[in-house]
Each structure stands twice: as structure tokens, then as C-alpha cells.
Amino acid sequence: MLLTLYRLDGAWHLIFIRRAEHEQDRHSGEVGFPGGRWQAADPSCAATALREAHEEIGLPPTQVDLLGELRPLHTVSQYLVTPVVGCVPWPQRLKPEPREVARIFSIPLAWLVRPDGHRLLTYPAPGHPEARELVFFDEFEGERLWGVSARITLDLIACLTRP
Predict the structure, then answer these.
(1) How far is CA 51 from CA 27, 34, 43, 154, in A?
(2) Which whole number is the average pLDDT over 21-43?
(3) Residues 3, 19: contact at Cβ < 8 Å?
(4) Structure confidence at residue 118 (pLDDT)
(5) How many domains does the chain have?
(6) What's the CATH number where 118 sits?
(7) More confident residue, 132 or 2
(8) How confident is the model at residue 124 (pLDDT cuts 50, 70, 90)?
(9) Under 8 Å CB-to-CB from 64, ≥6 apart: which residues?
(10) How far apart are CA 147 and CA 64, in angstroms?
(11) Distance between CA atoms of 40 and 17, rounded to whole angstroms?
(12) Coil, strand or helix: which one is 136?
């Protein structure tokens, strides 16, 4: 998956997507980052992230200045995701691939780094057989960042704010 940063009016922003709605997709309608499965033709996780971002939101790989990777994380659906971080010049002409992406939006980093802007909650409910502690951010313009995408966002913030 590609975590894409850009600077606008002196402030850093992070690009997110809301996934398209599909009955068979366990993560349908969720907020996340462009990304997908590694393919044999992909020489690296970065190549996969760039290819998927191009397919899902129309971001040309040549526009991305890769900064590095964050620690890989397992999702509840048993995927191992490797977050790749990059910067792009702004503006970019992005276009959602409607079968995969319902919306492209960004959140300012200044909003994401607020210490009171997220919390750990038991999901789906305490006592449920699949109950686990997940990160939930406050809503931003009607969008809710939570789960592995929220955890990855916190990992990025930790890297960016590390002394």
C-alpha cells in the first residue's frame, strides 16, 4: 500500500481512499490507502504499491518520490501489508477507479497527530469471539479511519515525529 504525502499551503497532507462497496468484500466501504496484492512481475513492495496506486487512483509512479517502508502488519483478513511511503508534488490529477475506489481524500497531518484524536476500542464488541483492540480516529469530513489503516497511520506519525 502507498502512503502518499503532499504539501499544500505550508501544511502536509496524507492521501486516503474509501473503498468501493462490494457485497463480497469484507473491507467494503472502509477508509484505507491505495494498495493490493503483490504480483510476480512486481520486483518489490514499492513496485506493487506504485502499480496499485496508479491502477486505483491514477497516480503516475513517476510523480512519486519514495521515502521508505514502514513495518509490515498483518490484517484481520490474514494479509501481510507493507506500507510504502512517498511524496508527490501538488496538485495531482487523481481519478478513482470506480470498481475499487469510491472516494479519494486527504487529511492534514496536523489533524492526525492530535493526541486526543484517536483511541483504542474493543471491536466488534467486548465478549465477542473475534474481539480485539483497534485504533479508531475521530471522524474527518464524514470519514472514519480505523483498524490496520489507523495503526499504519500511527506508525507513520511515530516515524515523522521521532527525535
Answers:
(1) 20, 10, 11, 24
(2) 86
(3) no
(4) 97
(5) 1
(6) 3.90.79.10
(7) 2
(8) confident
(9) 2, 4, 50, 53, 86, 87, 88
(10) 26
(11) 25
(12) strand
Q: Is the pLDDT of residue 26 over 70?
A: no
Alpha carbon separation from 7 to 3, 64, 86, 108 (Å, rounded): 14, 13, 12, 9
Single-letter residue type at 112:
L
Which pLDDT does position 76 carry in this prediction? 75
Instruction: Give me the amino acid identity at 73.
Output: L
Domain range holding 37?
2-161
Indicate the pTM of the whole model. 0.93
What percent of the chain clears pLDDT 70, i.e. is strictly above it? Answer: 98
Per DSSP, the residues of 63-119 read: G-EEEEEPPPEE-TTS-EE--EEEE--S-------TTTEEEEEEEEHHHHT-TTSEE
Helix (H/G/I), strand (E/B), else coil: 36: coil
Q: Are 26 and 143 in contact (CB under 8 A)?
A: no
Q: What is the per-residue pLDDT for 25?
A: 67
